[in-house]
Design brief:
Length: about 700
């Protein structure tokens, strides 16, 4: 579906999470007037209202919600109506303690916060779906209701449960997945450490154990936990589709969140929605926000909703920073540039009590005579000016592969070093962002959710587990003309989670022209030194020993050619070496594969570190280490040159981001000083002015230029 009809022609959604149950009738009436003043056209309603909607089991009180929907509709404000199941009321846990989640240490988590439910609990699902049915029957045809908001931030606080119900559900899930206990033993490699099972009832979740858990069991546990949460969501959606097929459904994701496989989840929403809270104290906050937007847009190849962000400051970090003047609108317009069709906040009015009292609101504690309120109103006007761009596609030039099975496999593996999580994905995204490219995130081993042209440069960071289908897809992308850059630790496990035999990279070895023979991480100091470092003067034998862990970073010598020239341009120096991290691999390289850089230090000196092999209309690269920023930038520059690719607007001043969406060129100045941009002509939508060749962009401001 992809689009939510907010009425009155093309519109960008603007509003926030509204919690009227916290306020009296007079304040609610004032709120609706203020929403109209600010240009708010949609609110999320009832997300945490279960206790108000069903104060006692089976006793529903819905009249207040009906009155509020009438008021909002009369004011021209659409509603994203929540199913209210994200935070069960105390009576549910009190009467049915089996609905409460149990952590890995066997502690049952009580009510008094939020999200205190076991995803596998039949009683929780029964009471949740009963509430959803009542809401759908009562309000599904209400003209204010334009979107259903199912649950809220699944797995934010409780991503797994270890109660007896969950244990039985895990066993049943394994029966459905594998059929026989022999198949489980084969898949998990239980011949190791005498772990063989002879009945499904013997299997337990990987709670605290004497030592390392079985990695294959951990991966299946993560799959199961995600599937159980998705089953909770889908149980509610089935009722909504039955009773209100005309109303689209969504739930709010949380960016690159490892516990939830978003490729799976995105198949079950009509519009992707996201919550994102970049830290204003982090100079890379705009990168993080952009990554969120590009990922959300990529999940279905369609516009998405920014369901939550903060107007200024959150309350939950150890140190909470406010947004600087201009950032509220700057970051919001950035999201529109990268595909958002709605910009919403948590929350409309800052709370007077509760755990989020000091989380900022669109109406802050200071009221309307405040900088935040003025910026909220300015943003409302800006989004009205951008309304013609609603639904327009975003033009991505480059791609990054993300695969949750591979992330879970890497997270679950015991060695060869601690899991880096999504670090390499973020690093490569940072490189693309700072080079001026817009990113499409890509799945592997499944259908790409868009018909847009394939990105010409694609990075595959740490695809630790690689199926045959995924390998074939990567090769096909190169065959079709893309420069495919494979990061280190790709293809270490096959699609069944087993270590690849005959050299890592598996089914990619022949096409890439590389075999990975061995991992050689540079560990620095020994992890558990037997004694202090030896002294050559007295430790005659030990003092003469060289170790593979002596270097804290890698240096790579670049072969003279395009990469060396790109490195000199990137660093504005005569540099001939790339800096990398502590990871290294020993490669065997075929003669027809070009070596672009070699390791420099100690026992790895002279060994290949970076290769490229032309394949079809494109090429396959392999990187045997984790490059620092300058090295990644140089690699991207060379790959882009091979692909004849340029960012939307090359040569921009420091701090300025450029993105094309539909006919519009979005420009965002994240820097602390005014930027001047030449060579632009057209109409600037936010100001209504004509640009005749030169644009002045003040600090923390945006411009959106369309052709005349």
């Amino acid at each position: 579906m992809g689009r939510v009809d907010l009425g009155q022609g093309p519109r960008l959604g603007f509003g926030g999470d509204y919690n009227p149950e916290q306020w009296d009738a007079q304040t609610v009436a004032q709120d609706i007037e203020l929403m109209q003043t600010a240009g708010v056209n949609v609110v999320s309603l009832g997300i945490f209202a279960w206790a108000q909607l069903e104060p006692r089991e089976g006793a529903y009180e819905l009249e207040w919600l009906g009155r509020l929907l009438d008021q909002l509709h009369a004011a021209g404000i659409a509603v994203d109506l929540a199913t209210a199941t994200a935070s069960p009321p105390p009576w549910l846990g009190h009467h049915y303690p089996e609905t409460l989640p149990v952590d890995a240490h066997g502690v049952r988590l009580l009510w008094g916060a939020r999200q205190q439910f076991c995803p596998s609990s039949p009683k929780f699902r029964e009471r949740a779906t009963a509430l959803v049915r009542r809401l759908a029957e009562r309000f599904g045809a209400h003209p204010a209701v334009r979107l259903w908001h199912v649950g809220n931030e699944y797995s934010c606080h409780v991503s797994e449960c270890f109660c007896p119900t969950s244990v039985q559900a895990f066993q049943a899930w394994l029966v459905e997945r594998y059929g026989t206990i022999s198949a489980v033993n084969e898949a998990w490699g239980t011949a190791f450490w005498s772990q063989r099972y002879d009945d499904f009832t013997q299997i337990r979740p990987p709670a605290p154990l004497p030592t390392f858990a079985n990695p294959a069991q951990l991966v299946d546990w993560r799959r199961f936990c995600d599937a159980e949460l998705r089953a909770c969501y889908r149980a509610e959606v089935e009722i909504l589709r039955e009773l209100t097929p005309q109303v689209p459904v969504t739930t709010n994701f949380m960016g690159l969140h490892v516990p939830t496989d978003l490729w799976q989840w995105a198949q079950h929403v009509d519009v992707v929605a996201n919550d994102a809270y970049p830290d204003p104290a982090d100079p890379r906050a705009a990168e993080e926000f952009a990554l969120n937007a590009d990922l959300m847009r990529s999940l279905r190849g369609e516009p998405f909703w920014l369901m939550e962000q903060t107007p200024s400051m959150v309350q939950w970090r150890e140190r909470n920073s406010r947004k600087l003047p201009g950032q509220l609108a700057l970051w919001s317009v950035q999201q529109v540039a990268r595909g958002a069709d709605a910009v919403l906040f948590f929350q409309w009015r800052a709370s007077r009590q509760g755990a989020e009292t000091f989380h900022s609101g669109m109406v802050p504690h200071a009221g309307t005579d405040s900088p935040t309120w003025r910026e909220v109103c300015e943003l409302g006007r800006a989004l009205q000016a951008l309304a013609p761009l609603a639904g327009c596609p975003v033009q991505a030039q480059v791609g990054i592969v993300v695969d949750w099975d591979a992330l879970w496999a890497r997270q679950s593996a015991v060695g060869p070093v601690a899991s880096p999580g999504v670090r390499e994905i973020r690093r490569w995204y940072s490189t693309f962002f700072n080079a001026g490219y817009t990113v499409e995130f890509l799945p592997v081993g499944r259908e790409r959710p868009t018909q847009a042209p394939l990105p010409r440069v694609i990075v595959v960071p740490e695809l630790f587990q690689l199926s045959e289908a995924a390998a074939a897809q990567l090769v096909a992308w190169a065959q079709a003309g893309s420069e495919v850059i494979l990061g280190a630790t790709t293809g270490v496990l096959d699609g069944q989670g087993r270590a690849v035999q005959g050299g890592y990279l598996g089914k990619l070895r022949e096409a890439v022209g590389v075999r990975v023979l061995e991992h050689s991480p540079r560990t620095g100091a020994p992890s558990r030194p037997w004694l202090p470092d030896p002294l050559s003067e007295v430790d005659r034998i030990s003092g003469a020993v060289a170790t593979p862990g002596a270097a804290e970073e890698q240096l790579l010598t670049v072969v003279e050619g395009p990469l060396a020239r790109a490195l000199r341009r990137v660093t504005a120096s005569d540099a001939t070496q790339l800096v990398a991290g502590q990871w290294a691999e020993i490669l065997a390289v075929e003669a027809q594969t070009e070596v672009l850089a070699h390791f420099t230090a100690s026992d790895l000196a002279g060994l290949p570190a970076l290769t490229r092999r032309a394949y079809g209309k494109g090429a396959l690269w392999y990187l045997a280490t984790d490059l620092a920023a300058a090295g990644r930038a140089a690699v991207v520059a060379v790959a882009a040159a091979h692909a004849r690719l340029q960012p939307p607007l090359p040569g921009l001043p420091p701090g300025v981001e450029a993105v094309r969406r539909g006919p519009a060129l979005f420009l965002a100045n994240h820097g602390a000083t005014t930027a001047q941009i030449a060579g632009l002509r057209g109409r600037e939508l936010l100001s209504g002015q004509t640009v005749t060749g030169h644009l002045v962009l003040p600090s923390r401001s945006s411009a959106v230029v369309v052709p005349n």
